Amino acid sequence: MAITVKSITDMFSKDVFTGKGVYCGKVADVEVNLTKFRLRSLVVEAARGSFLSSLVGGKKGVIVPYQLVESVGDVVIIKHITTAGIGEEPEHHSAPEPEPEGVVPF
After folding, report:
1. Cα separation of 48 and 27, whole Å?
2. What does the DSSP assignment read for 75-106?
3. Per-residue pLDDT reduced to its tens digit, 45-95
4. Which residue has the higher pLDDT, 2 or 44?
5. Whether this model's pTM surpasses 0.70
């Protein structure tokens, strides 16, 4: 099911929580696929002392593929992240623009 957003600027600075209610941080940026007019990923900046900051260590945050976004409203809800999903490199397919599969620390 597609999640629609009226304006991309509405995404910036929204709080991000996992599906289990754990606070991760704020949306710092978005990546857009201009050929398909779709959001590809969200850049989530880890808040100090948050669940996400403990997972990524010294990194600033993670890039979350938009497929992991469950809902967007006053806050953004993403699927719960575990350490197994952090740092996985997306698989390379023969398609010109593969979709990322795991969150990537930055």
Report:
1. 14
2. SEEEPPP-GGGBTPPPPP-SSSSPPP-SBEE-
3. 988 888 888 888 878 888 999 999 999 999 999 998 776 555 554 444 444
4. 44
5. yes
Q: From the options 3.90.190.20, 3.80.10.10, 2.30.30.240, 1.25.40.10, give the CATH code of 8-91+100-105.
A: 2.30.30.240
Q: What angle do CA 31, 82, 50 make, to 5 degrees?
A: 75
Helix, strand, coil shares of the chain, percent, nearest 5, are: 15, 40, 45
| pLDDT tens, residue by residue, 12-43 | 999 999 999 989 999 999 999 999 888 899 99
Q: d(Cα 60, Cα 81) in Å, to the nearest integer? A: 16
List, in sequence order, the alpha helices (H) in 37-77: 51-56
